[in-house]
Each structure stands twice: as C-alpha cells, then as structure tokens.
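Limitations

Structures in this collection are predictions, not experimental determinations, and the ligand pose is part of the prediction. Treat each record accordingly. The example that follows, with iron/sulfur cluster as the small molecule, is included so readers can see exactly what is and is not provided: the inputs are given verbatim, and the output is the predicted complex.
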Amino acid sequence: MSCPISTRRGTIAYDEEEEHVLHDACGVIGVVSSNLQETEVSSLLCLGMVALQHRGQESAGMATTNGTSLNKHKGMGMVSNIFSEEELKRLAGVAGIGHTRYSTSGVSELVNCQPFIVDSVHGRIALAHNGELVNAGKLRQDVMSRGVGLTSQSDSELILQLLTVKPDKEEGSKPDWPARICHFMSLSQTSYSFVIMVGEEVYAVRDPFGNRPLCLGQVCAPGEDGEDSVSGWVVASESCAFLSMGASYLREVLPGEIVCLRRSGMKTECIVDRPCIPGSNDRKPPAFCIFEYVYFSRADTVHEGQQVYSARFRCGRRLAIEAPVEADIVSTVPESATPAAMGFADQLGLNYVEVLTKNRYVGRTFILPSMRLRRTGVTKKFGLLQENFRGKRVVLVDDSIVRGTTIGNIVRLLKSKGAKEVHVRVASPPLKYPCFMGINIPTHNELIANSKNADQLAESLGADSLVYLSIDGLKTTIQSGVRKEGASGHCMACLNEDYPVSLDF
Ligand code: SF4
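Predicted complex:
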C-alpha cells in the first residue's frame, strides 16, 4: 500500500513505512574537455553520476557532443545498470552533461528523464536541472500565452523554452546565451542549479539565492614536460563527485553566477544579484538549503568551505549541550545521523556504540501489505546488535523526524529486545512546513511535528524522552562553520516558514 503526497505539481506515491520521504530532486554534472580523450568524457560523466547517485535513483541520463552531433542515452534505475561500456564508447565526445533523478512530478517514466534536449535554430540544446522554479505556474502561463506549446510538467522543458526564444533586445543572428540566461534569472529567482550544453560549451548556472548546490573542478594530467596541465573542466552538484572523477575541487558556483566551461577554459559570464530587502538598500541574503547539511548531501561533500560530516558532528555536539541525558551509550539511526550521534557522544564523554545494522539491499518497491507487517517493517531495513544495548540506557540520535514511523518502530524494537531506556535526540528542529524549492515534504497533517510536541511524540513512540535541536542551534552551528568569501545565508523555511521569496504569484 502506498500513500499519496500532494506536491505543487501533482501527486506521487511513496512507501508508507519510508520515514525519510524528504527527497532531493536530482544531481547534475558536466564535463568539458581541454585535451581529454573522447571516451574519457563519457566515462568521467558516468563516474560522477555514480557518485551523485544518492541524489536520485529513479533514472539517469547523459548527453554528449563530439563537435558535430549530440548523442544521448537515458534509462530507468541506477547509473551502473544504464550505461554499459559499449554505450559509453558510443557517447564519446568533447563535452557532455548528465543527470540523476528522483521524480518530484509523480511520473517516474523515461519521458521525464533528463537531460532534456530540444532542437532549435541554433542546433540541439541539452539541459539538466536540480530544483523547482517557485513561480513555474506563472511562467508556464506566460510561455503558453505566446503560443508556445509545452509537452510536460517539467521545469526543465520550461527553462529551455524560455532560453530558446530570442529576446527583443538581442541583436544579430547569433544567440547571446549569457544574456539569455541572465534574462531567465530575472524572471525566476529560485530554485535551480542547472547545466546547459550548447555546441561544445557547458554553462553552469546557480540561482541568485544559491538554494541548490553546484561546484566547479578541474581534471589535470601530467604533460610532456612532466608538469601537470589542465585537461578538462567539471561541474557537479556536490564535490564528492570529483574524487571519483580524478578531478580536483576549485570552488562553488556563486549564487546568481553563470560560468561558461569551454575547451579553452572556464569563465564567469555574469553574476545576477538578489532583490533588495523591502524598504532597504541591502540585498536579501542567500538561501542555501540547510537540509543539504542535515540529510541530502554525502558526508564527504564540502559546502561553503565545510565538510558535511563535520557540520553534522557539530550539530550533534550542540544537541548534547542543549539536551544532555544520563545514559550508557549513544547510537545512531544509520547512516546519515551517524556523525551527529558521534558528536553527541563526544560532547558528553559517552561511548558511541552501534545498535542497528543497515540492510543495504532493501529496495523501495517492496511495500508491506498490512499494518501489522508495516509496524514491524523496520526489521526489513535494519538488523539488531542486541548484545550492544541489552540492559543499557540508550540515546538514539536521528537526523530528522518526518512522520515518526521509522523511529517509533526502532524505539519499540530496542525496548522489546532489552534496552533499559531509549532517549531520542533529533539533530534538526521539528519539520512543519512545505518546501516549494524542489523537495518533497509530506502534507501538513502527515508531518508528526504538526500534531504532537516533543513530549507527546516521546510518549506515543514509547521513548523515555525526545528532544529536537533548536532552530537557533542548527542555524548557528552551520553558520559558524561557513568558510567562504561573500554573503552567506540559509533557507530554513520548512522549519520556520521564512521563505526566501514571496510565494504570492
Ligand atoms: S524549505 Fe527546507 S527543504 Fe526546502 S529548500 Fe528550504 S530548507 Fe531546504
């Protein structure tokens, strides 16, 4: 049995016992060769997509150009199952982009796989996109009122249509892509990070609020003189992709920045500013999604100069300061909560001990048919390390609670198998509001924090206590670790209802 989630763009089904139903919508990647072998480009894209697999496992696709034609391949499922060696040879080229997708629009079909490709008078254009345009509805109306038909609900198609129409101000017959992208950014301020390939160039674009991540790197190889020289440029949603691509991290794409990756090098084309705070000359701050730190990103990724693992560890420490507890051991709900659990234990001088093992081979498609089975369903995902917790007072740290299903099952299981006490600590504040920036969050009524406070929730789960990290605790902990030049700021709208842009359109 599955439950519907209402999103702005439709309804999707999800596994009722799946607690972490906060799904990110996609990973994007791009490679432009300086002097890479042509087969290396498609292989590097594939390696990067495997590293970004956690950002979407439903489908993946790649588009490459060999200088004269554009080749593409897309498929449903995991990257490693979609791209064979033969396919990667066929996709050999001098530049390319790729995408891993989690469907937010409900229809998990090949037709919605990215990159999206359109034929235009300037040749074929490919786009891979992460995020969701907050004003997509209005933009769709504007596009259609100009007589342009849209074949899908996809924001990616909408972006491409907006980019391919020649603006009134553009002179000459050659398209001014940076100017067109700037114009698009003035029409929609968030949320998107995308890569777009036109000819042999790849443009890397991040919205003015920097809501979704995007970063740049380079591939170096020893030249004939023995010195390293740059042989390619890369862009990816997360820096964790670079290690497996043999690339080195350079920097983040700045909020509002358009970077062009050409065979001759990489160049910032322009930076589009955020609007001013009403009644002030100051610009609104950036709004990088704070859940990239809490849950979405891989622990080895670096955002804003700080490793995600370290940020989670510090959140655990802060949680221990805010909500200490007398206990024998501290443990985790594997795996994204593990650094926070270790930080919690470290702060209180307690032992970190695992009480659960995770079965990595459980798919999302096998859904238990009855409530009785669903209530015990946690055992299909986790194994118990009973000797580690029997007779002990356990602190169980989780990164977030959405509906309380999984944590409730675990608490009941630990207690029934001999834990003396189970205290739940959550390394993020209560999740209460919808996201309009591309993350699927269950409806208001399904979010457990909207119907039960922490004490009521502890009681209903059978936990001895339950405390969330405070909003200020999360914000100051993350912001104290930011190491980057320029303004920083974070979206926390699903926690505090403070959206980066007005939703009134
Ligand atoms: S509302 Fe929440 S999930 Fe959405 S972008 Fe903001 S912090 Fe991220």
